[in-house]
Design the sequence.
């Protein structure tokens, strides 16, 4: 775990420690933010500082005391992290039931017990109902910190029983600086590729995703200009499904739509592709750009489901190939 919190999360850190400084821990907190920003690591860092017996001047855990050593080894009894099982995307009812059972026992230390649940917006209905019972009858000395990436998917009954930590606008400057400190030479390009998510940007950088993005974009132009078989394009996209290709393609189309109405490039996501985006505009009518943009957005909605992605990509590629 990081020795400090990510710089773009400083407002969240300050808010959490305001509760600690005032010794006024709420029964339940709800943090809402995009994936890939490090909220889970932030909460773990905070929980570690709560249990630490010798925090430093920045209120960070010392890492040396007995409590810190137990925490870092995963054996500190008054901190639990409820998340989807390996290979799963949702939180099922069993770990929530086990949590409820453990909360009936007394704390082992005279410190606030912290329970982190993430992502709470991906809990099965039965698990949400079980969690609701715990929120309705809170345990003294225990704070549940829930993390959600989509507030609209969190049941209203759960939202109403939590103190919401307001979303703070995160500075892209701090994200870019952090990426550069990791060694990323194309920080802006990778942050754009990750839709503004710095931790996802780091992973994309480590896998040289810009090269894959450029390859797919060249193939996309080839399909639009009827020089590449559309099915070869969709097959290549399917093989690169570890990348957020639908987001990338939608950003190209969105940028092309913007460029068709203005010469300014300031609001573009893919500024490094500007010259090729102009080729795209000269090839496709604005109506076709909007139609393809709507289609790729629909495809992105089904990426986590059981719909045959290959067939959807085939249809999209064929529509890109076809002339009006």
Sequence:
């Amino acid at each position: 775990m990081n020795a400090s919190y990510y710089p773009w999360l400083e407002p969240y850190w300050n808010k959490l420690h305001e509760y600690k400084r005032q010794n006024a821990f709420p029964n339940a907190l709800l943090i809402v933010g995009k994936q890939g920003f490090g909220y889970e690591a932030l909460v773990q860092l905070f929980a570690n500082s709560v249990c630490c017996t010798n925090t430093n001047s920045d209120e960070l855990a010392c890492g040396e005391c007995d409590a810190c050593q137990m925490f870092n080894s995963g054996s500190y009894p008054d901190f639990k992290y409820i998340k989807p099982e390996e290979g799963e995307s949702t939180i099922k009812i069993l770990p929530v039931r086990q949590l409820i059972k453990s909360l009936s026992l007394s704390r082992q230390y005279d410190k606030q017990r912290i329970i982190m649940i993430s992502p709470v917006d991906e809990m099965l209905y039965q698990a949400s109902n079980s969690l609701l019972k715990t929120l309705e009858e809170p345990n003294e000395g225990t704070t549940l910190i829930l993390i959600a990436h989509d507030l609209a998917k969190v049941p209203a009954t759960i939202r109403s029983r939590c103190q919401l930590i307001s979303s703070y606008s995160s500075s892209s400057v701090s994200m870019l600086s952090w990426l550069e400190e990791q060694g990323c030479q194309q920080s802006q390009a990778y942050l754009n590729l990750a839709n503004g998510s710095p931790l996802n940007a780091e992973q994309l950088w480590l896998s040289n995703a810009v090269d894959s993005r450029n390859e797919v974009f060249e193939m996309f132009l080839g399909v639009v200009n009827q020089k590449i078989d559309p099915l070869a394009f969709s097959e290549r996209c399917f093989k690169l499904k570890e990348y957020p290709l639908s987001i990338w393609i939608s950003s190209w189309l969105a940028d092309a739509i913007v460029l068709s109405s203005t010469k300014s490039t300031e609001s573009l996501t893919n500024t490094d592709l500007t010259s090729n985006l102009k080729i795209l505009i000269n090839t496709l009518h604005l109506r076709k750009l909007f139609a393809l943009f709507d289609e790729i957005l629909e495809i992105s909605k089904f990426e986590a489901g059981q719909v045959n992605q290959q067939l959807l990509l085939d249809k999209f590629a064929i529509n890109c190939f076809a002339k009006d």
